[in-house]
Amino acid sequence: MPIYREDQLQEISKQFQIYGEILHAETCKIGHINETYSATYRQGGTKVRYIHQKINQTVFRDPICLMSNVVRVTRHLRHKLEQENATDITRRCLTIVPTRKGDSFYRNSNGECWRTFVFVEGVQTFECVQTPQQAYEAGKAFGYFQNLLVDLPGERLVETIPDFHNTRKRFAALQRAVENDHFNRAEAAKREIDFALKHENVVDVFLNALAKKKIPERITHNDTKFNNVMLDTETGEAMCVVDLDTVMPGCALYDFGDMVRTTTSPTLEDERDMGKVRMQMPMFKKLCEGYLCSAGEFLTKAEKSYIAFAGKLITFTIGLRFLTDHLAGDTYFRIHRPGHNLDRARTQFKLVESIEQQEEAMQKFADTCAPADAVRKPKARARKR
Ligand code: GN1
Ligand code: MG
Asked: What's the whole-model pTM score?
C-alpha cells in the first residue's frame, strides 16, 4: 500500500479550506478500499485534526456522482439533527471540508481524487464487538441513520457501485473465477468453492422479493461494518456513522445483515481459527433490539420476517466476494498476507454455518422483539415517499 509522505500530504492539504499549519500526518489502517490519513494542524494556538482520504477510483469510478451523494446525505443528516435540537452535531455526522475553490473534493494533476473531513474527536471504533451493549449501539445507529434518510429530498441517489449486493451477480462472478482459475488457486480452495456452490438456493431470495415489490427499496448505507460506527470514548454511545461511499438505493435488510456479520462473532473478519467463529445469540439479541428500536417504525412486516435470513445472506455474499477476489488475484480487497482473502472467505462461510444452525431461534426472537425504548420522535421522521 502506498504511504503518503507528510510533504505530499501537505501539498494536498493546501487545497482545502483549512487554516493553520500542518504538524504531522499518519495513515489510518482502516478499510480495504480507500486510503485514509489523519493530519494534525496548529490552528489559533490549539491542535485540530482532519481526515484526508484518497478515493479508490478503480472501485468508485465516478467520484463526482459519489461526492454529490455524500454531500446530499451529510447535509440532510445535519438538517435533521438540527431539527431535533441535537447537541454536538459535528460529532454525530460527518462534515466535509470544501476545497479552496468550494468543491467537495480535489483532483490533482495525477488524476487522484482527495477529500477532507473534520476529524471526530473523543470516539473509538472497534474491529470486534466486545459487549452486547456495543452491538445494541451499532444496531440503533444504523437504524437511526436509515430512519433519518427516509425523507431525503430530490432525485434518487446515484448507485455508486451498481449491483453492489446483487448476490446472483456475485455468485456468477465466482463461477467465472473458478472456470478461469488464472492463478491456479481453485484446487486449494476447493472446500470453500464447494460450500459456495452448494448454497445457490439462497442467492435470489431478496432479488425476487425486491422485483416482486414484496420488500421496498430504501436509502441504505450498504457497508454497515461494526468499525463504521464511532462510539463515544467515555459513554460508549454510538455517535457517528462513517464510510458513506455506498449510501445509495438498497434494501434495509442488507444493512442489517452486514451488522449480523460484523457484530455477532467474537472474531475478526479474517480469523484463522475456525473453532472461534460463531454467531453469538446474546450479541444478536441486543443488535436486533437496537436496530428495531430505531428502524422498527418504518420496516414492513415482510422486511421483519427476513431479519435472520439477512444475516446469512450478506455474510454469504461477502464470503463470495472474498473468495472470488482470491481466485482472481486479489485485485479488489487490500490484502496483508498471502491467502488473506481465502482466510476471509473461510471465516464468512463458517459464520454462515453458525447462523444456519440458529436461524430459526434468531427469527423467533426478532418476531417477538419489542424494544423497550422505541423510536424517538417517530412522527417527525415519517416517510414521505
Ligand atoms: C470493504 O473498505 P471497507 O472495509 O469499508 C467493502 C465492503 C465489504 C468490506 C469487507 C466498497 O469495505 O463491501 O463488506 O470491505 N467495500 C466496498 O470487510 O467494496
Ligand atoms: Mg467501506
From this structure: 0.93
The segments of the chain whose pLDDT lies below 70 read 1-5, 372-385
Best CA proximity match to 321, nearest among 125, 28, 33, 30: 33
From the CB of 32, is ligand 1 less than 6 Å away? yes
| CA angle (253, 256, 258) in 5-degree steps | 110
Question: Counting runs of H as helices and runs of E as strands, what totals does the chain give?
Answer: 12, 11
Confidence (pLDDT) at 355: 98
Query: Minimal CA–CA distance to 45: which of 74, 11, 21?
Result: 21
- Report d(CA 28, CA 111) in Å as an integer: 22
Look at residue 30 in the predicted model and tell me its pLDDT.
80
Instruction: State the Cα torsion 338-173-312-252 to the nearest 10°.
Output: 120
For residue 20, how far is its CA from the centre of ligand 2 (angstroms)?
A: 30
Cα 231 from Cα 237, distance rounded (Å): 5
Which atom belonging to ligand 1 lies closest to the Cα atom of 30? 4
* Grid cell digits, residue 244: 458513506
Q: Is 371 in the pocket of ligand 1 (CB under 6 A)?
A: no
Q: What cell numbers appear for 246 in the block?
A: 455506498
Collapse the DSSP code of 248 into the 3-class scheme (helix H, G, I; strand E, B; otherwise coil) and give the result: strand
Question: What type of residue is 250?
Answer: G
Handedness of CA 211, 357, 364, 284 (dihedral sign): negative
All domains of the chain in start order, with CATH: 24-121 (3.30.200), 132-368 (3.90.1200.10)
Nearest to 282 by CA among 109, 132, 101, 113: 132
Structural contact between residues 255 and 220, judged by C-beta atoms closer than 8 angstroms: yes
- Contact predicate 230/30, CB 8 Å: no
Tell me, in angstroms, the distance from the centre of ligand 2 to residue 223's CA: 5
Q: Which of the listed residues 29, 33, 164, 269 should we mutate to test ligand 1's pocket, taking the one with most ligand atoms within 8 A of CB?
A: 33
* pLDDT value of position 39: 94
Kindly provide the b/e burial profile for residues 150-161, where b requires at least 16 CB atoms within 10 angstroms of the residue's own CB. Answer: bebeeeebebbe
